[in-house]
Specification:
GO terms for molecular function: transmembrane signaling receptor activity. With 709 residues, this protein is mainly beta. 10% of the residues lie in helices and 40% in strands. It contains three helices and 60 strands. Strands 4, 5, 7, 8 and 9 form a five-stranded antiparallel β-sheet that branches. Strands 32, 33, 35, 36 and 37 form a five-stranded antiparallel β-sheet that branches. A hairpin with a 3-residue loop joins strand 58 and strand 59. The longest helix has 27 residues. The termini are far apart.
Length: 709
């Protein structure tokens, strides 16, 4: 009995052990993925319930957090998305066989520890505005963690997929910035142990500006300079202050000079100063330097320049006309000009700001020898004197005048212009020339006009046609110059191209480019001062005097104002009526005497031949006297001049007749009947006598024939 009881006990013990082993064999295993010891909030965690049964289709899975059932499913996976800190706990799975409710099992417990995800913090060193070439450091720190457990990445402008830089060790990213590096920067860390990432940092803004720009200028600005001239280099930096200035020359990268002021002066330029210069600024604060400046080339010439003096006239200048002298100097710019007459005397020089000197109305006293020279800079640098130029002044008009069509000194662009050399006899061999600032002296045939004999035609004017025009012969004679101004404005002043004679009227008109205004009211100015306001658009000076000379222009309230034009006034020619009358009376008396002698000869036709010879001798002596007066012979049948105030000469005919002397034979005697007339003219002051070097008078001649001795 006891044996049987023992056997039962052993059997039961074996069954219990088998059941316990079987239960352990079927117990599910709960695992976590990813298997991190510390989980950051926001991560996704997967719980997996595994057991050795060959199939899971007959099982139902239950998921618990502590004693709270979370979920039921036929799947052995349970996913926790965006896990939070308050989800930290122990988790289980429980499985139950769908076919047998008595077959069910609990898994092991897993503990999830969830903490807040650490946030990266990005620091910019130094802070504030950065300048190109400076070094910047971006420092990434993970809050609450040591730097050694993380890898670091930096991002620009929100692109978190492509880091601009990564480091397995260093949490600082340093680099030299340029303007392109400007932007918003962030960083984050990735833990080396489990590859968990921190939150991305807040953005910091990096602003990179170009270094302040240095600008180098040269005073004076012209090039080249000449040996001995003073040159000042100026280095200007527009922003910031407290700069020190460094000066560089040639190919050297080392500064040749440093100063606290921004100028560098070469007091007396020499050959060795000819080179390339530039500058840069430095200071003790950010930005610590400027950019290098632009480079300037300093050119130095050793030879002192000599100007060329020319005149608007190639021949003698006519009294009352303007004469313009030009001091031509091709070397660089910045010159002021001095003009000397008779002697090279600095005490008596006339100074002008431009290279031209105008004698508005030349007189005999303006004739003589002229020089020019130029100066510039501080201290003053002088050129050599030019060669001497002689100005000859005459009261005789040139044989050719330049006629302008349409008339006037001012013209609109795109208008046409005709310039014609008109002579007192003929104008063959004369050409139209001009002087402009751009082309200097040139002929019409050089391309700015078309030539037809002595006429120059310009089909379409431009402002480059503004200049001084004249006619010039092959021998170098020249007409009086004419100023032509071409404007692209809407208003011109219609004024004469040639000087106006004292006592004559002068009308100035304000002309307009299309469309013409309905209101023609215009203001007229002389030398910048208002003279008149006329509703008709024209102004008349009834009797011009020398005081009316000056610069004139007109102004319209809507269209604007015209360019200025110089109006010259020449003196009226002296009255010569009295001289003409005296010469005329003398001429009449002379011929009356001759006629008397001839009459006496005919009365005494019977006298002896020697008496006739004596009479003839007296007549020849009278003729000699005439010759001494500068008169030449006139042949029978020609006309003798009749004088009038318009310089027109009318001649009466010489007549011939025969006288017969029985004793002495017959001879043909030529005699003159002279009628001297004077035409009346109310304008006595303009009367002229027809007496000049070209006026000729007759010498009485006899032709004798002797018959029947």
């Amino acid at each position: 009995m006891e044996f049987r009881s023992l056997s039962v006990i052993l059997l039961l013990s074996s069954l219990v052990q088998n059941l316990h082993a079987q239960a352990h064999y079927f117990k599910p295993v709960l695992t976590v993925w990813p298997d991190w010891p510390q989980i950051f909030s926001g991560e996704t965690i997967t719980l997996r319930c595994s057991f050795p049964k060959p199939s899971v289709t007959h099982w139902t899975f239950y998921w618990y957090r502590e004693s709270t059932r979370l979920h039921r499913s036929d799947d052995n996976l349970y996913i926790l998305k965006h896990i939070k800190v308050d989800q930290s706990s122990k988790y289980y799975c429980y499985i139950s066989n769908k076919q047998s409710q008595r077959e069910s099992y609990w898994s092991n417990a897993v503990t999830l520890t969830v903490t807040e995800r650490p946030k990266a913090s990005l620091t910019l060193v130094p802070t504030g505005q950065m300048f190109s070439g400076e070094n910047v450091t971006l420092r990434c720190d993970i809050q609450g963690h040591t730097g050694t457990e993380w890898r670091y990445s930096w991002y620009k402008d929100g692109d978190s997929n492509r880091p601009v830089h990564s480091s397995d060790v260093k949490r600082e990213y340093s680099f030299s910035v340029v303007e392109f590096d400007s932007g918003k920067y962030t960083c984050r860390g990735e833990r080396r142990s489990d590859s968990q990432r921190s939150e991305i940092s807040d953005a910091v803004i990096l602003i990179v500006s170009a270094l302040p720009r240095a600008t180098l200028t040269v005073d004076p600005r012209w090039s080249p300079v000449f040996t001995g001239e003073s040159v000042t280099l100026k280095c200007e930096i527009q922003s910031h202050s407290n700069w020190r200035y460094q000066w560089y020359k040639g190919s050297s990268g080392t500064a040749v000079s440093q100063s606290q002021i921004n100028t560098f002066t070469i007091r007396s330029a020499a050959d060795q100063d000819q080179d390339q210069f530039w500058c840069r600024g430095e200071r003790n604060y950010r930005p610590s330097s400027s950019q290098y400046s632009n480079r300037v080339n300093l050119s130095v010439e050793a030879e002192t320049p000599k100007p060329e003096l020319t005149s608007s006239h190639k021949g003698a200048a006519l009294i009352g006309n303007p004469v313009v002298l030009y001091c031509k100097l091709d070397q660089s710019a910045g010159w002021k000009f001095y003009w000397s007459k008779h002697t090279q005397s600095p005490e008596n020089e006339t100074k002008t700001e431009t290279h031209s000197y105008t004698i508005s109305s030349v007189s005999v006293s303006d004739g003589g020898q002229y020089w020019c020279r130029a100066e510039r800079g501080t201290p003053v640098y002088y050129t050599h004197y030019s060669d001497a130029l002689w100005i000859n002044v005459t009261g005789v008009s040139p044989p050719v005048s330049l006629m302008v069509s349409p008339g006037g000194t001012q013209h609109f662009i795109t208008d046409s212009l005709s310039l014609n050399c008109e002579g007192q006899s003929h104008s063959a061999g004369w050409r139209v020339r001009r002087y402009t600032h751009s082309e200097k002296v040139s002929d019409c045939s050089s391309g700015w006009g078309s030539v037809t004999r002595s006429t120059c035609n310009i089909s379409s004017l431009s402002t480059s046609h503004t200049g001084v025009y004249w006619c010039e012969s092959e021998s170098g004679e020249s007409s009086n110059p004419v100023n032509i101004t071409v404007t692209n404005g809407d208003v011109i002043l219609d004024s004469p191209v040639h000087p106006v004679t004292e006592g004559d009227p002068l009308t100035l008109r304000c002309l307009y480019h299309d469309p013409k205004p309905s209101n023609l009211t215009a203001e007229f100015y002389k030398n910048g001062s208002l003279l008149q306001t006329q509703t008709t658009g024209e102004m008349t000076i009834r009797t011009v005097s020398k005081s009316d000379e000056g610069l004139y222009h007109c102004k319209h309230p809507e269209k604007g104002e015209s360019p200025q034009s110089w109006i010259s006034v020449r003196a009226a020619e002296s009255a010569v009526g009295l001289v003409g009358a005296v010469v005329g009376v003398s001429f009449a008396v002379l011929f009356i005497i001759l006629l008397t002698l001839l009459w006496c000869y005919r009365i005494k036709k019977g006298h002896k031949l020697h008496t006739n010879q004596m009479s003839e001798q007296k007549q020849r002596e009278s003729g000699a006297e005439d010759t001494q007066l500068g008169h030449a012979a006139v042949q029978a049948g020609e006309d003798i001049p009749e004088w009038d105030s318009q310089s027109e000469c009318i001649y009466s005919n010489l007549h011939s007749g025969k006288a017969t002397d029985v004793g002495a034979g017959s001879m043909e005697i030529i005699y003159a009947e002279v009628e001297v007339k004077m035409k009346k003219n109310s304008k006595t002051k303009h009367e002229k006598v027809c007496v000049s070097a070209d006026t000729v008078y007759s010498e009485l001649k006899q032709n004798r024939e002797t018959k029947g001795l």
